């Protein structure tokens, strides 16, 4: 049922939202803060700030997770997951690793510096070169791992678990919120990443086609990863172990249960194990590069050059990730708060489209598109507030009526209270910074271009390929 | 593997593969037209 929910979320939320984000970026030629100022007016630059900070909030703990992947890749290459290694050993390995701050912080620092190095080189010199290698490699390795998993005896149970819908979960609000968050997380819809990339794209890019490819390609990669992981777990272990493994959450599944299985698969210790963790590292780095570029783009818009902006963002990431590197509860809390926060960011992008004029936005998108961007796009964007209210409201209702949860406690890892508290704090800070944002954006644009009218109605035009400063 | 699993795998996984291949083909064709046939503008 979850996959069907994700497909639906992709169609009704991710595709129209990515198209909206591309229009925001390509037309304003600014990062999230500047784009919202252009589309919504000077008083609403804070909305772009909110979107940026939600993504930076994810960047903080995601760097920590990427650090784990790098550590586990090193473990795998050094033969740590051999045939005699079972779940008890991998659990101990995991507990010792995450319980050792020196290790988690060291690998967090390595991941942040690697990403900073790539972003420092700009889009053409760094990001494009890295993604040209990592994305095809990622797909090739995922296909290989999925084929290996599907050819294991008993893999059919895994496919059944993955693909056959359990219709009894149709009205499960938590499942629907999970599907929307998963969709937002994996496609990048609502992060502002696509907005940032669009700053560097041609204005007449076919954004409808690009959005379709991003969403479909991402969904395929997710399914391949799901097949590789779930089929292996179901094929190698008893159904009871498999159920336990898939219930253990992403961290437990990847770093404890799956790690314990590589020794039991032919070629697992020296080939498929290292390959799997290499995929995790590549996927993590690709995402982190985009997130850091988003933050850097905004700082450049506010007047710093690329070098200073990258150094500042790397330092902030190093500091901001430390609480998550030290405590898994903090990491889970941040994952929950900012993961759901992406839906608010998506809602903001939809509001920006409404302010700009849905028909005007549709016509602009349709102009360069092979596909007809018709009334369906306007209808879906207009429905964003309703979709958000239904999905989040449903989740709130279930949480509030669940006697086993203290939903209002702001100090609980997954409570509504903690989400609302952190979002509110962010709203207030961004509102207070709004005038500063607007002033800095105006000053930076004036410094960069003098009084000459810039492309896109008086906005600054960053050098393509990110070679500014 | 039972029939139900095969059918749903084909629908959900096969459908995604078809979508990716189809969209990639359109993008590739568009790229070819742009580079081979000079500037292409939208209608």
UniProtKB/TrEMBL annotation, chain A:
<feature type="transmembrane region" description="Helical">
    <location>
        <begin position="255"/>
        <end position="288"/>
    </location>
</feature>
<feature type="transmembrane region" description="Helical">
    <location>
        <begin position="105"/>
        <end position="123"/>
    </location>
</feature>
<feature type="region of interest" description="Disordered">
    <location>
        <begin position="448"/>
        <end position="469"/>
    </location>
</feature>
<keyword id="KW-1133">Transmembrane helix</keyword>
<feature type="transmembrane region" description="Helical">
    <location>
        <begin position="379"/>
        <end position="399"/>
    </location>
</feature>
<feature type="transmembrane region" description="Helical">
    <location>
        <begin position="135"/>
        <end position="155"/>
    </location>
</feature>
<feature type="transmembrane region" description="Helical">
    <location>
        <begin position="309"/>
        <end position="326"/>
    </location>
</feature>
<keyword id="KW-0812">Transmembrane</keyword>
<feature type="transmembrane region" description="Helical">
    <location>
        <begin position="338"/>
        <end position="358"/>
    </location>
</feature>
<keyword id="KW-0813">Transport</keyword>
<feature type="transmembrane region" description="Helical">
    <location>
        <begin position="207"/>
        <end position="235"/>
    </location>
</feature>
<feature type="transmembrane region" description="Helical">
    <location>
        <begin position="44"/>
        <end position="70"/>
    </location>
</feature>
<feature type="transmembrane region" description="Helical">
    <location>
        <begin position="175"/>
        <end position="195"/>
    </location>
</feature>
<dbReference type="InterPro" id="IPR037272">
    <property type="entry name" value="SNS_sf"/>
</dbReference>
<keyword id="KW-0472">Membrane</keyword>
<dbReference type="InterPro" id="IPR000175">
    <property type="entry name" value="Na/ntran_symport"/>
</dbReference>
<protein>
    <submittedName>
        <fullName>Neurotransmitter:Na+ symporter, NSS family</fullName>
    </submittedName>
</protein>
<dbReference type="GO" id="GO:0016020">
    <property type="term" value="C:membrane"/>
</dbReference>
<dbReference type="Pfam" id="PF00209">
    <property type="entry name" value="SNF"/>
</dbReference>
<feature type="transmembrane region" description="Helical">
    <location>
        <begin position="6"/>
        <end position="24"/>
    </location>
</feature>
<feature type="transmembrane region" description="Helical">
    <location>
        <begin position="411"/>
        <end position="433"/>
    </location>
</feature>
TrEMBL record, chain B:
<protein>
    <submittedName>
        <fullName>Uncharacterized protein</fullName>
    </submittedName>
</protein>
<keyword id="KW-1133">Transmembrane helix</keyword>
<feature type="transmembrane region" description="Helical">
    <location>
        <begin position="6"/>
        <end position="28"/>
    </location>
</feature>
<keyword id="KW-0472">Membrane</keyword>
<keyword id="KW-0812">Transmembrane</keyword>
